């Protein structure tokens, strides 16, 4: 026979059965009883209780004392996860593990008053009362519930009943399955176990449109409705907003009105919760103190107590904070912080805008000082939105404008006070250098001074620009006749060149080319009535000379010339050729003489004829084709030039299109039928073999 352990040793060695996860389905009757060891005291005395963890922390001596005090038969071991219980005595007597000895806990098996040995807290486990059988006389149906289509309602778990004899109570109810997929009123029936009594509840199913309309009503009445309308909208059953306090309705209304967007019930609930949180506890007291402050000093103290940041101590700013707080009626410290930050922006914006409008040095200094003050309490204050200027940049721009205005005033004063032509010209040139006027002609200095009378008074740069323009026009009118006469009277190439250059310097003639002086002299008739006539003469000579040069360049080419040189010569602007196809350059080159001759191409028409001739050939048309369809047409035409399309014709239409597209996209032109034949056959064989091209 095995030797039994002493009781103290048994208690010390007790191991808690390992349970890796809760097991479902235990009786609710023992839900209030927790796992552990229950030491039952004598009748009328309080016992002790230890969780398995606390029991494990006791020393062997402490455990032995407890076992000796209560006796193993009065020590119950209960494992809630398995809802099983036994005594230390049963474990010792049977010499088996807990799981082999323990049995399912029976009703009222563990009862009594206990003290938690680890915490010292007292608690009691009461026996389950035995209730007399009561007969239900009537059932009170629950109030209606409102939900949105497709949402299952949270039906009550119990209903109120009246028992025989007039007493009332709550009993469990089981509701039937119902369909809430369509708008309307759904009557749901519930049964009460063990009776023939039923309960009914009306579920009012609202459409999504009804829900959206209710949400919109909350937003609209918060902004324009009276408090009664707002309350009706906020408490609409379809919304199901929780926690609404009658005393906070005005705060709900102002908070929701200030919200940028209300699109869901969750948005409204969040704002209601925000108000509720703000109106209760320490935060509410701090906000109330801020709103009640009636002097700048008490306001500053209240803001500091609430740990509101970015507060400027300047009296005018504190007054601005006070005004804004009274106007906006904040309900939370977050609201107060927003007001302080927004007021700081308004303060600086007002100061900077005033400086920008006045461009007065005193206003600029005031704005800069105010910005510095706000930045001292809010270092990141001057951080503009993307694409906007900072306050510092705007102030700097005003300073630049003031400096520019001061400089401008000095320049205009210099022009007004000039006492001779040298001083006046210098003043006008300084204005031109500053990009305030343009068109100052140094040779008109005497005319400028002569036109400036004692009554002349310049106020703006525009006044001076008008003055300069008028004098220049008058001087130019006087000069034009002489300049035109100089062209007509030029006796040789040198005099004509000088006359044309004078017109150019006067801004009356463009495109004058000194390289064409000889041509101008040779072509001049000396009978020009105006500057426009001379301009036409110069343009005609330039065009003729450019054409000569282009024809010389063409006539210097031969069939061995570089193709890029041929293409450049053909594209000369003076020739004005049409229809040039870059991919035909090799064909154009082949049509040039084997040896260059001066008179091969006497005029533009001869060169155009070469281009047109090449373009009209079948190869020329092929190279000019930009679409696969045009290439196909050209290939058929080239059969007359010896192209064999036998292999090409064996291909599918799609494969033929691939070849045609490849030819159209090739940047190099086809120069011979033989080259074309080789290219087509190679692509056709690749396609037939299943390869790409």
Summarize the topology:
Elements: H1 7-13, E1 36-39, E2 47-50, H2 52-57, H3 60-70, E3 75-79, E4 84-87, H4 88-94, H5 98-101, E5 103-104, E6 112-116, E7 122-125, E8 136-140, E9 145-148, E10 158-163, E11 168-172, E12 174-175, E13 184-191, E14 198-206, H6 208-224, H7 227-234, H8 249-258, H9 265-278, H10 282-292, H11 296-305, H12 315-328, H13 333-358, H14 361-377, H15 391-417, H16 421-433, H17 445-451, H18 461-488, H19 493-505, H20 517-523, H21 531-555, H22 563-570, H23 585-591, H24 604-616, H25 618-624, H26 628-638, H27 646-649, H28 653-665, H29 673-688
Parallel strand pairs: 2-6, 9-14
Antiparallel strand pairs: 1-2, 1-3, 3-4, 4-5, 6-7, 8-10, 10-11, 12-13, 13-14
Helix pairs in contact: 1-3, 6-7, 6-8, 8-9, 10-11, 12-13, 13-14, 13-15, 14-15, 15-16, 16-17, 18-19, 19-20, 22-23, 25-26, 26-28
């Amino acid at each position: 026979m095995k030797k039994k352990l002493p009781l103290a040793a048994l208690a010390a060695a007790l191991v808690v059965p390992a349970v890796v996860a809760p097991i479902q389905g235990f009786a609710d009757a023992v839900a209030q009883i927790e796992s552990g060891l229950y030491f039952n005291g004598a009748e009328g005395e309080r016992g002790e209780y230890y969780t398995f963890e606390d029991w494990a922390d006791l020393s062997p001596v402490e455990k032995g004392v407890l076992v000796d005090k209560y006796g193993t038969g009065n020590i119950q071991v209960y494992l809630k996860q398995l809802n099983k219980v036994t005594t230390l005595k049963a474990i010792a007597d049977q010499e088996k593990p807990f799981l082999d000895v323990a049995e399912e806990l029976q009703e009222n098996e563990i009862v009594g008053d206990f003290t938690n040995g680890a915490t010292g807290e007292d608690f009691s486990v009461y026996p389950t009362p035995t209730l007399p059988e009561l007969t239900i006389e009537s059932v009170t149906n629950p109030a209606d519930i409102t939900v949105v289509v497709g949402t299952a309602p949270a039906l009550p778990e119990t209903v109120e009943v009246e028992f025989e004899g007039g007493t009332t109570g709550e009993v469990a109810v089981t509701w039937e399955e119902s369909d809430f997929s369509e708008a309307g009123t759904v009557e749901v029936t519930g049964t009460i176990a063990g009776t023939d009594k039923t309960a009914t509840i009306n579920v009012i199913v609202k459409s999504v449109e009804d829900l959206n309309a209710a949400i919109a009503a909350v937003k609209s009445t918060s902004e324009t409705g009276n408090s009664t309308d707002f309350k009706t909208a906020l408490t609409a059953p379809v919304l199901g907003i929780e926690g609404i306090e009658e005393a906070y309705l005005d705060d709900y209304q102002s908070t929701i009105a200030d919200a940028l967007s209300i699109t869901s019930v969750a948005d409204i609930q969040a704002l209601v919760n925000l108000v509720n949180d703000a109106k209760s506890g320490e935060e509410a007291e701090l906000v109330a103190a801020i709103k009640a402050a009636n002097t700048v000093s008490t306001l500053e103290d209240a803001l500091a107590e609430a740990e509101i940041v970015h507060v400027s101590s300047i009296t005018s700013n504190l007054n601005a904070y006070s005004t804004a707080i009274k106007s906006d009626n904040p309900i939370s410290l977050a609201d107060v912080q927003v007001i302080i930050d927004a007021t700081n922006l308004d303060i600086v914006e007002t100061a900077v805008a005033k400086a920008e409008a006045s461009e007065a040095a005193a206003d600029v200094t005031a704005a800069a000082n105010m910005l510095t003050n706000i930045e001292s309490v809010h270092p990141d204050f001057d951080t503009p939105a993307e694409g906007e200027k900072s306050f510092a940049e705007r102030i700097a721009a005003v300073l630049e404008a003031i400096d520019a205005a001061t400089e401008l005033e000095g320049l205009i004063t210099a022009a007004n006070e000039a006492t001779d032509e040298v001083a006046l010209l210098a003043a006008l040139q300084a204005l031109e250098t500053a990009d305030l006027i343009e068109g100052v002609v140094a040779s008109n200095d005497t005319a400028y001074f002569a036109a400036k009378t004692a009554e002349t008074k310049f106020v703006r740069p525009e006044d001076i620009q008008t003055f300069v323009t008028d004098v220049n026009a008058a001087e130019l009118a006087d000069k034009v006749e002489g300049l035109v006469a100089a062209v007509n009277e030029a006796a040789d190439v040198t005099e004509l060149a000088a006359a044309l250059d004078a017109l150019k310097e006067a801004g009356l003639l463009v495109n004058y080319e000194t390289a064409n002086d000889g041509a101008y002299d040779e072509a001049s008739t000396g009978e020009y009535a105006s500057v426009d006539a001379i301009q036409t003469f110069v343009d005609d000579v330039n065009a003729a000379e450019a054409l000569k040069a282009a024809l010389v360049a063409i006539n210097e080419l031969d069939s061995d010339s570089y193709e890029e040189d041929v293409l450049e010569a053909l594209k000369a602007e003076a020739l004005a050729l049409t229809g040039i196809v870059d991919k035909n350059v090799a064909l154009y080159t082949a049509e040039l003489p084997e040896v260059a001759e001066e008179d091969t191409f006497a005029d533009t028409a001869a060169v155009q004829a070469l281009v047109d001739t090449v373009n009209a050939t079948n190869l020329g048309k092929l190279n000019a084709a930009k679409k696969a369809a045009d290439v196909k047409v050209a290939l058929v035409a080239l059969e007359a030039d010896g192209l064999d399309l036998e292999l090409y014709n064996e291909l599918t239409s799609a494969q033929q299109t691939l070849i045609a597209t490849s030819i159209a996209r090739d940047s190099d032109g086809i120069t011979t039928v033989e080259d074309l034949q080789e290219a087509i056959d190679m692509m056709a064989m690749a396609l037939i073999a299943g390869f790409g091209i």
